[in-house]
Amino acid sequence: MQLSRAARWRREVDFSEIPGSRNALFAHSGEAFPRALTRGARALPAGSIGDDRFAMVDAETAHSLCTGLHRYLCQHDCGRILLATCKKSVLPFLQPDFVIELLPDKAVVHRNGHGISALTSPMRPMVSINTAVERFAGGPGGGWRGPEESLDDMPLQSRTGQRIPGASVREEFQVSVGLDECTAAVSKAFDHPFDGSIKQKCFRLKPEALSFSWSIGAIIGPSGSGKSTNLKNFGQGLPFQWDPAKSVWDQLPYGDKKKLLEAVTLGEAAARRSYDQLSAGERSLAQLARSLCSNGSVITVDEFTSLLDRHRAYQVCTKIHPFIMERGIQLVVAGCHKDIADWLRVNWVFEADSGELLQVQDFTVGSPPPRIAVSFEVPKIDLVMRRLETSTRSRNIFASHFEAHHYMDGLLPTGLYGQLIRTTSGELVAFHAVSAQPGQIHNAMRESRLVVLPPWQGYGIGPRASTLAAELIVASGMRLFCKTSQEALGSHRSKAPYLWRPTTTNGKPMTASLSEGFTRKRKREAKRLEGLRCLRPREGWSEAGGQTSEAHLRPSTESSLGQRCRASSSSGAPRVLQPRVYWAGPPPAEGSCRGCE
Length: 597
Known about the structure:
Layout: H1 6-12, H2 32-40, E1 48-51, H3 59-75, E2 81-84, H4 91-94, E3 98-102, E4 107-111, E5 126-131, E6 135-137, E7 143-145, E8 161-164, E9 168-176, H5 181-189, E10 197-205, E11 216-220, H6 227-232, H7 257-263, H8 268-271, H9 280-292, E12 298-301, H10 310-327, E13 330-335, H11 339-343, E14 348-351, E15 356-360, E16 380-387, H12 391-402, E17 416-423, E18 428-436, E19 444-452, H13 461-475, E20 479-484, H14 487-494, E21 500-502, H15 510-532, E22 543-544, E23 547-548, H16 560-570, E24 580-584
Parallel strand pairs: 1-2, 5-16, 11-13, 11-14, 12-13, 19-20
Antiparallel strand pairs: 3-4, 6-7, 8-15, 9-10, 14-15, 16-17, 17-18, 18-19, 20-24, 21-24, 22-23
Protein name: N-acetyltransferase domain-containing protein
Organism: Durusdinium trenchii
């Protein structure tokens, strides 16, 4: 890949987490591996064919993947590409020229008059954010005003159950990869130092947390959240190596093979063929049947029903449950689809991305998935933004759900005012927070964190959330300072001069920005000291000749940030980055003096 395309490639790919885009291919999770191969298919010549490209990811990630693929195909001449998938819901996001729907008795062709070949510019889903935040209040005790947000009604907890506190511990895993020019350019463009070492944190389920009696458990989470890692703690073994010279039927060491095949919904005719002659979905069912032949007390199944359409997955879950209960064994499944927890009637659910364990107390069968018709209508995404109650609550939610998806590792400010963006059904989407600037900038806030979860990236949710927050803060008479190295976000702010104003360091290298920033800070401090001459001496201030001593008022210029910057420059490796800095709100009045206010 050419070095000049590195930053653009990083923005177009679906590895939304910075560590994921630089992992070695063997280190990717089960869902990220086919995602990498999907992106590699873009470079194939005309006539490319992709099979089951979106099968091993959840619906939201598949939609985001198709949105990015649609945008890429509209902007580049990639020739003719034929994709096969069992997910009809991705069609409005992909906008193909035609769809061949394979029915049991016939094939139906659906033509799209607004397909990729007929578009001159990419088509984006319609996103609306309904904010429940009323306003922003500055000063002591200030913050966002409006209805408070709570995570007690998360979608995974659709069943009644009991949360088990302290059920997991967060551990750090490290993977090393080779450095090249492309990787270094991508890291520099996103202000993320990288030395070839990838450190990722994930939650590990404590075995002692499952002290209650159970038969079926589920580990649910998005790509790269640690599902497979947790599954290994239950004794997950290597996949069975099928003999291509024998049929699947002959390689199932189970007494009543018909009953076994009925439990996994694999037909006897398919089982009479060799494993290599089966489709991808049939192979996953054959692997499931082979796992159920194990004599162990605990059976583990990774990527459970991931390669199946959701109607087939519903049938597998409803039929395999009585099979497990009759045998009296324990089954632990892992997957990215949350619906398996309802259909399989599990006893416990572990959220791999948040580390929470729920002991389920409702064992009714969940509703089957709705029938989805072929449609090319532009999708609509309705979101709701609400404030978080306290600064502590904001930091805790960021640490548990969003920290792993943000490139910065620094400490969060003490005064953090967070907002949470979710779908109307309760799915987590994004996190936005601002912080106060005590002793630095008068009557202003700073955008501290803006994180959009990977399955929801590519829709423009981040810029919309940032703009909504800026409008609320500006309406309160304050200013909002923001800095970003993300090209799309910076471009969005540059198109709205009525709201966003670039600072004097906009577009300059980081070293120059910091140097000019310290110079301006010294000038502001000198102006403040000049204004303090008109005040009476206060208690604790020394006096010299009736004048207030400036030596006791001037702050130290050797701040920790300044020391780090000089250390970085003296090491011979200055950081040459291009941050974009903006502020929202009216400029301060000319001649105003903070000391005289």
